[in-house]
């Protein structure tokens, strides 16, 4: 493991990185929120089905 090479690579990436604009941040937050909501909804549906169908699946 070459530490000097790794640090150089990390510094290069950090120099290229920039803070997203408010519009980009807002869009990413909406998409992430929708994904969290959908996963929660699927989990709730599975829970509801398992609760109403005892001994089912």
From TrEMBL:
Name a GO molecular-function annotation.
Answer: protein transmembrane transporter activity
Origin superkingdom: Archaea
Q: Which GO terms describe its cellular component?
A: endomembrane system; plasma membrane
Entry keyword set:
Cell membrane, Membrane, Protein transport, Translocation, Transmembrane, Transmembrane helix, Transport
Known role: Essential subunit of the Sec protein translocation channel SecYEG. Clamps together the 2 halves of SecY. May contact the channel plug during translocation.
Q: What lineage does UniProt assign to this protein's organism?
A: Archaea, Methanobacteriati, Methanobacteriota, Stenosarchaea group, Halobacteria
Where is the protein situated, by its record's location annotation?
Cell membrane; Endomembrane system
Instruction: Please give the InterPro entries that the UniProt record associates with this protein.
Output: Prot_translocase_SecE_dom_sf, Translocase_Sec61-g, Translocase_SecE/Sec61-g
A Gene Ontology biological process annotation? protein targeting
User: What's the name of its gene?
Assistant: secE
This protein is called what?
Answer: Protein translocase subunit SecE
Listed transmembrane segments: 31-53
Q: Which Gene3D superfamilies match?
A: Preprotein translocase SecE subunit
The way it spans or sits in the membrane comes to: Single-pass membrane protein
Transcription among the record's keywords?
no
Complex formation: Component of the Sec protein translocase complex. Heterotrimer consisting of SecY (alpha), SecG (beta) and SecE (gamma) subunits. The heterotrimers can form oligomers, although 1 heterotrimer is thought to be able to translocate proteins. Interacts with the ribosome. May interact with SecDF, and other proteins may be involved.
Family per record:
Belongs to the SecE/SEC61-gamma family.
